Amino acid sequence: MRLRYILIALIFSISLLKAQSSYSQTISSDNLQNLKVSQLSDQQVLDVWSRLQASGVSEEVAYQQAMAKGLPATEVEAFKLRIAQLQSTAPKSKLSQIKRAPDPIIERRDTVKTVIDQVPKSSSTVYGYDFFNNPKLTFEPNIRIATPKNYVLGPDDEVIINVNGLNQTTITRKITPEGNIQLPYAGPVYLNGLTVEAAYNTIRTKLASIYPAILSGQTKVDISLGNVRTIRVTIIGEVKQPGTYSLSSLSTFFNALYLSQGPSQNGSLRNIELIRNNRVTRVVDFYTFLQKGLLNDNVSLQDQDVIRFPVYKKRVSVDGSVKRPSTYELNATETLQDLIDYAGGFADQAYRSAAKVSQYGEKERIVRDVPASLFDRYVPANADSVYFEAILNRFTNRVVIAGAVYRPGTFELTPGLSLTQLIDKADGLRDDAFLTRGYVKRTNPNLQKEIVSFDLSKIRNGGDRDILLSREDSVVILSSNDLKEGQKVTIDGLVQSPGIYTFRQGMTIQDIIGMAGGFSTAAASHRVEISRILKDASNVVANELVKTYTIELDSALYSKNTGPFLLEPLDYIYIPRLVNYRAIGTVRVEGEVLFPGDYSIQKRDETANEILARAGGLTPYGILKYAQIYRDGLRIEENLTERDGQPIANALIVMPGDSIVIPRQNLYVEVKGEVNTPQLLRYSRSGFKYYINAAGGITQRAKLKRAYIQYPNGINRPIKHFLFFRIYPRVEPGSTIFVPEKQGIGIKLGVGEISALTSILTAVVGLIAIIATK
Questions:
Q1: Which of 134, 183, 242, 481 has its CA 20 to 30 A from that of 510?
Q2: For 632-649, what is each residue's pLDDT tens digit?
Q3: How far apart are CA 251 and CA 231, in angstroms?
Q4: Is the dihedral of CA 621, 623, 626, 630 positive or negative?
Q5: CB of 364 within 8 A of CB of 296?
């Protein structure tokens, strides 16, 4: 037995070795050009990523090395995409395998709001960097255009010469490495380094010696480009993908920028250098294209050109109420106004009178308030953070009126506006206006809240002076109805629309029931109850606080005894349910019955036996003995046929939501678990151990004293123990016998077996080390 575990360990180690060996052959430096990331499993991608992080080199350097060994750039992008997908979907237990080291994104500078120590952070992106990550922009050179006259010819360019007129011919020649083409009957023509326009003049002069009609204009000469040559351009400096790129000779500066994926985190977009013949021939400001769409700097490239991304010199972040918050690269003389323009200008809600600028001093941070008059002269420093606040959420000329006027709302505060003038603007007072008391809610200049009360009746007759309104005043005109407490009645119970209704003088019980849509079908209209709060003005504590009235109404809301019953404010009306008008509930019947389904309970004491009879009784295959009844998800009965010799199906009263399940007769007994031959055995009225033995007996891992039997109704019965005796449960048709496994199996090895296992594992570890070093 112990030798068996030694062999299992050996087989597992060898399988692991084979898996690692196979994997190392699948992803190796020798076959990177054939690697397909889409064919790798998630685990393989994670393993590669883990090895990349453990190597100590940066991500970009690793990708460059992989491409240098033949890995296509498309597969590099596919690998990056897989890593990003795994980062977003992997469970927390695997995040440690794919967690990227944070990119050294440019540190954003805090900006100042209303207090110095509350500095919001601006957006985390550098303006223009996302442009190079857009898969819909490729800047591929257009080869289906007319031949540009300023195109400089070189070796491997194909020149097509068309001669038309008195003489007609077409000559196609590729420029040799020496820079020549061979013209029939005219000899070699040197074209290297000439523009297309200069080459045309040279070729035309050469052909005129063969075709004199060219000089008279009777024969025309045209030249165009066929296949163009490949040039090599090197991109260096602070760039994501430095290296030498093979491009079409029609490629432009922007083609190369896009292929290099743009600048790295410290690269400049404002001073990109084009180096030709060991000198800087052009400095490109990419903002000219990003901001204005101008292609002035998108010049054609030449063989051996070098493009260099220098380190940026000044970056300033802007946040708050601007249209495009971000971090922008500024030139040395650009001002705060230039920064605002780059950010798309102010947002609609911007406070434009000043900017908050946070700077880094020699030892501490500095806050500066820059007024709008200096925007076009203030030059931000590197790492400055600029914040533009929003205007205050308040009005300079607003007053509000609410209450018993015809047009309540917000109005303009005009000079000298008074209370009565504001009421006139609101189309005057309603008829229910309470004239003797109103008030103005006011906030004083020192922000203290104040209430100014007024009597409109005295203001109208000249007894009191009119009130001059101030900014943000809120006038409230009270309604006489607002001062009347409890002008509501409530109706609840079995009506169509129970709720709270406005009380009106003369309202009757019949009125409120009609307003509520009338009685529901189950309403007990003969017992309508009205509860009324008693009003007692005495100082003695009364015992009776609410008086209840009960009246009888018919379906036409007519009462023979009381006639119309007048309501009072705060009355509560309740319509009860008829005593016997209700559905008690349903019982579900499933399994071996003739008509399974959901059956409504007909009476309060209906039994399970009566429900089964309504379901057509049992099929020939059903067995009542193991019927199961469930209530609230719990089994409540295990045997419907007898208890203490009495049939309990006649006495068990069902409840709403109960389920009755009649199982199918099963003439077999299943033996499962730690037996040598788990199987189904035909029931033969034999004992528990008979079925154990018929299944080949128990295994060495079995724990027989914990064995148990499960009956068809789901009830479990374990083996019982009395002194030294075991009492086995009775076996019934359809039962299942379970023999569990012992817990905590230990492996005991002898000295020789331990020594043999140690030797095997040592050899396996050595073999793994040899493969890992390959």
A1: 481
A2: 888 876 556 655 545 554
A3: 9
A4: positive
A5: no
| Residues 337, 319: Cα–Cα separation, whole Å | 14
**Can you tell me the distance from the alpha carbon of 262 to that of 239, in angstroms, rounded to the nearest whole number?**
6
Q: How many CB atoms lie within 10 A of CB 538?
A: 6
Contact 357, 384 (CB under 8 A): yes
Under 8 Å between Cβ of 401 and 472: no
Instruction: List, in order, residues 6 or more apart from 459 with CB less than 8 Å away.
Output: 419, 420, 465, 466, 467
Is the pLDDT reported for residue 108 higher than 50? no
Q: DSSP 3-state assignment of 394?
A: coil
Other C-beta atoms closer than 10 Å to the C-beta of 505 total 8
DSSP character for 478? E
Q: Is the separation of the CB atoms in 235 and 263 below 8 Å?
A: no
Which residues 6+ apart lie within 8 Å of 153 measured at CB?
Answer: 159, 175, 191, 192, 193, 194, 195, 196, 199
Per-residue pLDDT, 379 = 96
C-alpha to C-alpha distance for 708 and 688, rounded to whole angstroms = 9
Compute the distance between CA of residue 700 and CA of residue 266 in angstroms, rounded to an integer: 70
Provide the H-helix boundaries in 161-273: 196-208, 213-216, 253-259
* Interatomic CA distance for residues 330 and 382, integer angstroms: 9
Residue 93 pairs in a beta bridge with none
pLDDT, averaged across the chain: 82
**Residue among 95, 126, 80 at smallest CA distance from 265:** 126
Rg (the chain; Cα; Å) = 47
Q: Rounded to an integer, what distance in angstroms lies between the CA atom of residue 370 and that of residue 285? A: 28
Handedness of CA 428, 431, 435, 440 (dihedral sign): negative
Closest CA relative to residue 554, chosen from 513, 515, 526? 526
Distance between CA atoms of residues 363 and 192, nearest Å: 60
Nearest to 189 by CA among 198, 180, 179: 180
Contact 120, 113 (CB under 8 A): yes
What is the model's pTM? 0.48
Residue 685 tokens, joined: 């009225």
Q: Which residue blocks in 331-427 are alpha helix, DSSP H?
A: 336-342, 419-425
Q: Is the pLDDT of residue 6 over 60?
A: no
> In degrees to the nearest 10, what's the CA dihedral of 233, 238, 239, 242?
50
Q: How far apart are CA 170 and CA 162, in angstroms?
A: 5
DSSP lists the bridge partners of residue 300 as 252
pLDDT digits over 444-501, tens only?
Answer: 888 899 999 999 999 999 889 999 999 999 999 999 877 776 688 999 999 999 999 9
Q: Does position 21 have pLDDT exceeding 80, yes or no?
A: no
CA distance 333 to 617: 98
- Alpha helix locations (H) across 472-536? 509-515
Spatial neighbors of 503 by CB under 8 A, at least 6 apart, are 486, 487, 488, 489, 567, 568, 569, 571
Over residues 654-676, the pLDDT tens digits come to 899 999 998 888 888 899 999 99
Distances in Å between the Cα of 749 and the Cα atoms of 742, 745, 761, 764 are 19, 13, 15, 20
